[in-house]
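Entry: Arginine--tRNA ligase
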Amino acid sequence: MGSVTRGGEEVKLPKRAGTNFPRRDLIEHPGRDATRWFLIARKPDSQLTFDIDLARQQSNDNPVFYVQYAHARVCSLLRQAQEKGLVYEQGNGLANLGRLADAASLLRMPEISR
């Protein structure tokens, strides 16, 4: 697998003896989403360093938090667009992406014009 760090120091994963850091804690401490992200974000043949502190951070340094934050922002934009009568039709996939970007720009107009 590679190595796991916490507080800048490497934490040893259990071998057959079952000592040190239980794998269950590796999933529960940062959460399933963060664990999945860090495990699949690299090539299978590359060395993995799983930083538990980074996985738990709620900042843009944490890629999982960044993606979750971006998802929340997009959902907010869609909700605001719907409130203003702009409807995103999911069936068209990327065909409406340009219109959605235009709608997002329109929603930002008060911020831009200040």
